[in-house]
Amino acid sequence: MSETKNIKHPFPPLFDERSETLILGSFPSVKSREAMFFYGHPQNRFWRVIAALYGEDAPNNIEEKKSLILRNRLALWDSIQSCAITGSSDSSVKDVVPNDLGLIIKNSRVDRIFCNGALSYKIYMKFIFPLTNIKAEKLPSTSPANAAYSTDRLIKEWSIILK
After folding, report:
1. Helix crossing, 62-71 with 46-53: angle to 10°?
2. Can you give the residue ranges of every domain in the chain?
3. CATH (one of 3.40.470.10, 2.60.40.3710, 3.40.50.620, 3.90.180.10) for 4-161
4. Measured distance CA(110)–CA(113) in Å, rounded
5. How far apart are CA 125 and CA 132, in angstroms?
6. Which residue, of 19, 43, 108, 142, is most buried by count of CB atoms within 10 Å of its CB?
């Protein structure tokens, strides 16, 4: 059994001055924390979904992932800056400190926010929305824990991020 640990988000947001759409996860999984990059678990469907939406091949490494995101004017970050968490389980998250999106909002063109899963959306609406005043849309989680959604169904639901 994994122990509950208080952990600070270990890597920075991914965006540039051209980013228009922010995708917010909740908090990096154990695999993502080990990789020091977003959606690091091989069973997470995030990279396959984003690549399919933009008609590109799924990226194989961090450089390709960064390029895919920035080329399509996306930004990645998480709604939680630190929390107590057991392993990678969203249901175990407590003692949340939300992330500050000010750096991204001020230094990009982000005017649309999509939350990858229920926890990200809940934290965003409770703590961050009052500061940004940018309405977020909740999307079904790409996590392997969300077995109710096939990759094809995720791609269909996620297609609303396309402008």
Report:
1. 40
2. 4-161
3. 3.40.470.10
4. 8
5. 10
6. 142
Q: Using CA atoms, how far apart are residues 49 and 45, in angstroms rounded to an integer?
A: 6
Cα separation values, 26 from 60, 75, 118, 138, 143, Å: 23, 14, 9, 12, 11
pLDDT tens, residue by residue, 41-76 = 999 999 999 999 999 999 999 999 999 999 999 999
The pLDDT value recorded for residue 124 is 98
Does residue 121 surpass a pLDDT of 90? yes
Residues with a known catalytic role: 44
Q: How far from 159 is each of 7, 51, 75, CA to CA, in Å?
A: 32, 11, 16
For residue 115, is pLDDT > 80? yes
